[in-house]
Design goal:
9 helices; alpha/beta; eight-stranded mixed β-sheet
Length: 283
């Protein structure tokens, strides 16, 4: 499905009902807005694992402008402030009040932009396998720990300038297998509608991916926030999640570091990841 907001067509998908029978009444369930990773990807990597959460919430998957099936727009609108405002505008257009917003990886960057710019809007926030700023030194260290010097050098080259097409292929071939501790299939790549120009623009030399920093702005967050990450996440290492939790006002952040897991905890330990999310939604 697509909806036009401010001249931009956004693709979104929905799983699960908002209102369900509950004895003699109809019960309204929370809406979980899911923000995919990337940038440049679509929401396909969130399925089918996150689809199982429709037993506790209505699920709404939003594809960011410039990403996936949404309108490509122009590069000057490919920035975190705009993407964060888009989440707010999208929810207003669909009359989604007090959503629970889950942002995974790059989606977590967008979720932080949204929640710090519109702190009164979300009911709850889930920041999964993400970071408040990128630390290429920590990324390189973790890839070296997992894959040795070859992986480190490719990670340094890719995260130093993802617009360099010569490093993208070798990085995907060598470093992607270290994203998770459980071997993954090729579905992440084959199912994805990709805007590679956006990836290069954001994580290229001088791109916003090299400079964004939410650590100070996270003090604006007003809602309960679940921060979850994997012990062996090489892209957004666990220290990055620790910094997020520390920057959120006291009492609002819950930090969960899952042992034996990598980037996208649910891909290594689906049961533990979904259990933590369900408990947080229902709390």
């Amino acid at each position: 499905m697509r909806i036009e907001i401010g001249g931009v067509k956004f693709f979104f998908d929905v799983e699960g009902a908002k209102v369900v029978p509950d004895g003699p009444d109809m019960k309204e369930r929370p809406t979980l807005v899911l923000l995919h990773g990337g940038p440049g990807f679509d929401h396909s990597h969130l399925k089918p694992i996150h689809s199982e959460l429709q037993d506790v919430a209505q699920l709404v998957y939003l594809e960011h402008r410039g990403n996936g099936r949404s309108y490509r727009c122009t590069p000057e609108t490919w920035n975190l402030a705009q993407w964060g405002d888009d989440v707010h505008a999208f929810c207003q257009a669909l009359e989604i009040e007090k959503p629970i917003v889950l942002g995974l990886s790059f989606g977590g960057f967008v979720a932080q932009a949204y929640a710090t710019r519109h702190p009164e809007h979300p009911a709850k926030l889930i920041l999964a396998s993400t970071a408040a700023n990128m630390r290429n030194d920590r990324i390189a260290d973790m890839f070296e720990q997992l894959g040795g010097m070859e992986a480190r050098k490719l990670a340094e080259a890719f995260w130093g300038d993802a617009s360099d097409e010569a490093v993208v292929g070798p990085y995907i071939e060598t470093c992607f297998p270290y994203y998770n501790q459980t071997p993954q299939g090729t579905e992440l790549i084959t199912r994805t509608i990709m805007n590679s120009d956006l990836l290069g623009d954001f994580f290229g030399k001088g791109g916003e991916g090299q400079s964004f920093d939410f650590r100070a702005a996270l003090a604006n967050i007003q809602c309960p926030t679940l921060v979850m990450t994997g012990e062996f996440d090489p892209v957004t290492p666990a220290t990055q999640s620790q910094e997020i939790a520390a920057a959120i006002p006291d009492g609002l952040a819950e930090l969960r570091i899952f042992k034996g897991c990598g980037h996208g905890v649910e891909r290594d330990d689906k049961g533990a990841a979904l259990k933590a999310i369900r408990e947080f939604i229902l709390a």
